[in-house]
Amino acid sequence: MSKNYPTHASIKVILLVAFAMIACRYSYADRPNLLIAISDDQSYPYASAYGTPGIQTPAFDRIAKNGILFHSAFTPAPGCSPMRAAFLTGREIWQIGAAGTHASDFPRELPVFTEQLEQSGYHVGMTGKGWGPGRAADWPHNPAGKSYSKAKVKSPAGISSNDYATNFQQFLEERDSDQPFCFWFGGHEPHRTYQRGIGETEGIDPKNVHLPRFLPDTPEVRSDVADFIFEVQWFDSHLNRMLDHLESIGEADNTIVIVTSDNGMPFPRAKANLYEYGIHMPLAMCWPASWPAGQNHDGLVSLIDVTRTIFDVARVEPRDSDKLSGHSMMSTLSKANDKTPFVRSAVYSGRERHSSSRFHSLGYPCRCIRTKDYLYIRNFTPERWPAGTPQKYSGAKFNRDNELIAGNLGPMHGGYHDIDDGPTLQWMIANQNQPHVSELLQAAVALRPGEELYDIVSDPACLENLASRSSHQSVKEQLSNQLDKYLTETGDLRVTAPEQAHQWEMYPRYSSLRWFQEPEWWSEKTKQVPTQMWLEAKRPRD
Question: pLDDT category, 13, cuts 50, 70, 90?
Fold first, then answer.
């Protein structure tokens, strides 16, 4: 009777599997956990670690105290959907197709760090807002990870009922013993809308809040900013509970915590703009087991540098690593500083379409370069309204020849949908007869020149455009050339092939559409934008 002795080949396979299991176990123990917290619409410097008055963010401050507080961190895009896609992929928005614009598709072929960490053995999940808005039809779940959002909490009006912290705990309960985790906490706060007056009701004194110079200093605006701050603090409170839980289960030391935001505050001339309050982000990171506490980092950092750093700390070789545009900060942050740290001379950001705010839902394409002292912006279509066309149609309907056959133009200043509507915008519109208010409103909504240049040191509000000043021509030329060089190296069609840049208008938008008058310049520019079939399918017909 023959016996089934293992063959030499099968023994080899068994040994390889065993060694792989041992190696995986050791790699689990050696690799840190990751908790990534991203608020929705929070500008620098709205965190108390920065010394900003009128706000208390103990969780953010706790991370900064235990690790590194970044003073010059910048988003790759001033809008949520493209920023999150850029952060997930580690690439600039002009390198990721439809994912680089708002409320479009997230192509399945784009590699994201969450999926690559999961494939390397990490337990990966998310709660709240992952990538979006938009459509990720071919993905098994949101590109940020499997959602954990069942736990709910009673919340004030305008605030998500998602019990983020409890959902984090439930996520941790599902992981294997000793398995490292990567969790994405995407707060819906402080995105509008806000419960009016909740900031003051909850103890935030509007008189003490930090008010940027591009907003009018009035009780109404200060109250609106106080409501914004309350929602920042709501987000921070959930992060604080997560940190407490990590300590209670003994995971705090070996967990890298990253807290930042996607884009600037939802106020005129901030969110959806390449100005300082649209792209300058709060950022704190800690890894108690490996990074010295109490660090202050003043160097320029892009949030896609954080993505590259995530790959390094997780010991995962990124797919198509040569296409990642960020630079790892490991040598700067770690105790074993055996490499020369990468020092940025500049960071870059850009935007295409944000909301449906213009004729044919066209975007407002622009790019910028930010150095230590200056911000240079290139507006590629200065004929378009930057915040949206002032008037829009209500009840618009079209015939089969795309001729408007029904609809009335609404009031002036009713089409600024690239600004989140709220008390500040409405107050500015209602009081534009006041010269100073009119000046600030126009700074937010009026046509802009093709080039803008701001001295960030003396003018962080970005109100004094120096681009046409003879005294600043050499600076402008230098930054313009540096921007062109980077956009060329990273394959931006806006520079390398302007005749093909209409592709951004061809990506479908899945959120609601609005309808506007045909602008005077359209007949001259129409060949630059072919027929948008996605838009034709959504046009309201009689």
Answer: very low
Q: Give the domain CATH number at 129.
A: 3.40.720.10
The residues, ordered by sequence, that sit 6+ positions from 9 with a Cβ below 8 Å of its Cβ are: none
Average pLDDT over residues 89-105: 98
Residues 363 and 278 in one domain: no
Q: What is the pTM of this model?
A: 0.93
Per-residue pLDDT at 9: 43
Shared domain check, 253 and 126: yes
**463 shares its domain with 357:** yes
Same domain, 358 and 339: no
- Residue 4: which H helix or E strand, with range? none
For residue 373, the number of C-alpha atoms closer than 13 Å in the C-beta half-sphere is 5
Task: Tell me the two tokens of residue 34.
Answer: 């990751």
How would you class 274 by CB atoms within 10 Å of its CB: exposed for 0-12, middle for 13-18, buried for 19 or more?
Answer: buried
Cβ within 8 Å of residue 95, ≥6 positions away = 89, 323, 325, 490, 491, 492
Alpha-helical (H) ranges within 113-161 are 113-119
Instruction: Give the closest residue to 451 by CA, choosing from 371, 351, 383, 379.
Output: 379
pLDDT in the model for residue 4: 42
| Residue 44 pLDDT class (50, 70, 90 cuts) | very high
Same domain, 393 and 290: no
What is the b/e burial string over 390-423, where b = at least 16 CB atoms within 10 angstroms of the residue's CB?
Answer: bebbeebebeeeeeeeebeeeeebbbbbbbbebb
In a domain, residue 377? The reply is yes
- Same domain for 365 and 267? no
Determine the structural domain holding residue 500 and report its residue range.
Answer: 350-538
End residue of a domain, out of 311, 345, 379: 345
Last residue of a domain, one of 321, 345, 369: 345
Cβ–Cβ < 8 Å for 111, 320: yes
Amino acid in position 513: L
* Residue 21 in domain: no
The mean pLDDT of 104-133, rounded to a whole number, is 98
Q: What is the pLDDT of residues 356-407, one digit of tens each?
A: 999 999 999 999 999 999 999 999 999 999 999 999 999 999 998 888 899 9
Instruction: Tell me whether strands 255-261 and 280-286 are parallel, antiparallel or unpaired.
Output: antiparallel
What is the structure's pLDDT at 542?
77
Residues whose CB falls within 8 Å of the CB of residue 477, separated by 6 or more in sequence, listed in order: none
Domain count, the chain: 2
- Looking at the domain assignment, is residue 514 inside a domain? yes
pLDDT at 526: 57
DSSP 8-state class, residue 470: G
